[in-house]
Amino acid sequence: MKKQSFYSCILAKLLGGIFFLAIYSCKSEYYTEADYFKVPKIDAHVHFLTTDASIFEQAAKENLTFITINVNAGENVSRQRDTAKALTKKFPRQINYLATFAFDTAVWNGDNWEEKTIAELENNISGGAVGVKLWKNIGMTEKDRAGNFIMVSNGRFDPVISFIEQKGLPVTGHLGEPRNCWLPTDSMTVNNDKSYFTRHPEYHMYLHPEYPSYQEQLAARDSMLTKHPNLKFIGCHLGSLEWSVDELAKTLDRFPNMAVDLAARICHLQYQSAKDKNKVRDFLIKYQDRILYGTDISYSESKLDSSFFAGIQATRIKDWNYFSGEMELKSRDVDGAFTGLHLPKQVVDKIFYLNTVKWYKLEE
Ligand SMILES: [Zn+2]
Hints:
Number of strands: 11
Strand content: 5-15%
Shape: globular
Structural class: alpha/beta
CATH superfamily of the largest domain: Metal-dependent hydrolases
Bound molecules: zinc ion
Number of domains: 2
């Protein structure tokens, strides 16, 4: 497709003015909202709990495919694995999946957690998983026999991480939480965090100093990455450094095999771009090969009606307009208005498609 458009540009140039419109569209450096439906996109962070075909009919209209992420939360991990395997069999061109494993503290307290976890992963990834997800229960929930939080830097993870690496797969990690989680509500940046942590004081770490700190969560992740320099690592949710593109840039510089997804954190970029648009835009251009589009939308049987599909399409079009357009935008998560980042087509193509293909080694 790329070659075709290149040659049609050359042809139009050769034939001169009568092909003005063709030249104009070839030369246009930026996408419009209408292009959303034409350009191939991957949502690299969704959770599918159903194999319902209506999702894929809707997605085909939007030129959209998926990576569904199994996670050690909510529905049973074995059931998630079976659903993911069935999905990739039924819709091989539209979806890939990430495996995970159920963390068992009783087994951790025994001698052979490593072997058992590798065996579970082996079974989990045998269906063609393109990566393995680690979740925030590591660092924020699981405790050892002595009552200490089990951090991802713990040496017992090393053989498991090495096994994933030997399989040629990346680790996708949701480790830690947004920094807001450790701040008092009135110091938080985006409105969705303010309301979520107000409704869920049990998860608001500012109120729970007995838990590992924000800095300890990131230090554990960084220590694991230091021990595995060749591991490809995709940090979910902007690598838990959603609050500062400067800090995220430092981490990406430190770990050249790390990328991040945008899932459920685009509002944090919007919050920063409302203050300094060029800073966020420059960051995305500089790190254009290491940012993967994702939403964190969950698809379950009970949700799939026309208003659900209209809502998620509207969300993705808003995201598209933020990255590709230059109009003034609003979000209920961010106070005040901000403008689209007007990224060049080549950067938008990477964020919405090519980076996911590259980092998860998908077949194009
Ligand atoms: Zn998620």
